[in-house]
Write a structure and sequence with these properties.
about 425 residues; alpha+beta; 11-stranded mixed β-sheet; 19 strands; about 20% strand
């Protein structure tokens, strides 16, 4: 199981630091990650995913602990607390062991690791392993991983559009599985001024970017222009100045299609931003030395909000072992309509709203800022969400200042010169 009841947390939660593995160098960490990826190749008729990248620190992996003995001696739990919406409860979500190793490699920046075949820069190594994992999970043999994945994460087959696992040709096809219509109902569907969760995820929300940087995104280089891959003087960046941010983090076990948070119309085509394949675990996002959200590969679309006629930026961020980002949307969309999906790996969707477009629900704001009963001194905490859950609403109309009528034409001109 990836989740533990709070009563099972009998040791401190590890704050990852290089000194936590004092006798282990970066080369061993890289080799351990490489072997974890290779262990996802099925042998025989079945595969146990917990022997590879889906292993957890509280369930020892003998071969890995032999390679990296320090892992076995860690005295702490490894992972993050997550709040359960509508309750004062939270649970502890264990970090997959591949994320723990990937997090450790982040501390070494642009240095090289010494592997058996040749030396590689860490960012190149992580990219190669992410591509390799995608190749493994795109192979027909990878379907043997599906039963173990279902058992490990308690996947509910009754929710799936195709519940027969033998109909999936690869593990990746199962990973970005579709749900039955109606399984994720949209709250307040008849109110166009409402917004909804874009994903099954762990969520934090902030009314301004400054608040996001104060409480959650500690990387010094994070800005909206950097996130969108645009020049700071671009008119679109000025539109988002002082705007709001929602960060939807998808864990590997989550349904990995993402959906529209608002009613509106897709403007133009997505643009891709090349980048790295670092982990987007909260401990990486909360680390001041890193800026993983603007360094990782990502892809962006614009959605014109039907009520305000203002643009909303939807940014799909890749991560360690994420194979690809695929958009499936065109034209007009309603809240809850599918926008796209990720191939294998945990990943993140960031939605950027212009100022005064959205007032986030109070319970989400409180947890994101580290207040409220479910937090209980644990600091800022993510909230477990499903597609369609309420995210917030448009403020009162008197607070609104609508854009000029020619904004659609301005955005079409902008889309003609967006990054390729």
């Amino acid at each position: 199981m990836a989740s533990l009841d709070e009563t099972d947390i009998t040791k401190p939660v590890e704050i990852i630091h290089p000194n936590n593995l004092p006798r282990t160098n970066k080369d061993l960490i890289a080799e351990g990650l490489r072997q974890l990826v290779e262990h996802t190749i099925p042998s025989g008729d079945h595969a146990d995913i917990t022997k590879g990248i889906h292993g957890f620190a509280h369930r020892p992996i003998p071969w890995l602990y032999k390679l990296i003995p320090d892992l076995e001696e860690l005295a702490n739990h490894i992972g993050n607390f997550v709040a359960i919406r509508g309750t004062n409860q939270r649970f502890f979500e264990s970090m997959p062991i591949y994320v723990r190793l990937g997090m450790h490699l982040l501390f070494y920046g642009h240095v090289q690791v010494n592997l058996l075949e040749r030396n590689k820069y860490i960012q190149d190594f992580l990219k190669e392993e992410s591509i390799r994992q995608g190749e493994i999970y795109d192979s027909p043999e990878s379907v043997k991983n599906i039963p173990s994945f279902i058992e490990t994460y308690n996947i509910q087959l009754g929710e799936l559009l195709e519940p027969d696992i033998h109909q999936y040709r690869t593990f990746n096809e199962f990973f970005y599985r579709q749900l039955k219509p109606g399984v994720r109902p949209v709250q307040y569907l008849d109110d166009p001024e409402r917004f909804c969760s874009a994903a099954d995820c762990r969520l934090v929300v902030y009314q301004t970017v400054d608040l996001a940087k104060k409480f959650w995104i500690k990387g010094d280089e994070f800005t909206i222009p950097a996130l969108l891959g645009l020049d700071p003087g671009d008119p679109l960046c000025r539109t988002f100045a002082g705007g709001s941010v929602a960060i939807f983090r998808l864990a590997p076990q989550d349904y990995h299609r993402f959906h529209s948070p608002a009613d509106g119309r897709i403007l133009g085509e997505p643009w891709d931003i090349p980048g790295q394949y670092y982990t987007v675990n909260p401990q990486a996002v909360n680390e001041s030395k890193f800026d993983v959200l603007t360094r990782n590969k990502r892809s962006v679309i614009l959605l014109e909000h039907s009520v305000s006629k203002k643009p909303i930026a939807i940014v799909a961020v890749g991560a360690l072992l994420v194979g690809s980002i695929v958009w499936t949307c065109r034209g007009d969309v309603k809240r809850g309509d599918e926008l796209g999906h990720f191939a294998y790996g945990g990943s993140t969707v960031i939605v950027v709203f212009p100022p005064k477009i959205i007032k986030f629900d109070d319970d989400l704001v409180q947890k994101s800022r580290g207040t409220g009963p479910a937090v209980d001194g644990k600091g800022c905490i993510e909230t477990l969400m499903k597609v369609g859950y309420s995210l917030g609403r448009t403020p009162e109309a008197k607070l609104f200042k609508f854009l000029p009528q020619d904004w659609a034409q301005r955005f079409r001109r902008f889309l003609g010169r967006r990054p390729g």
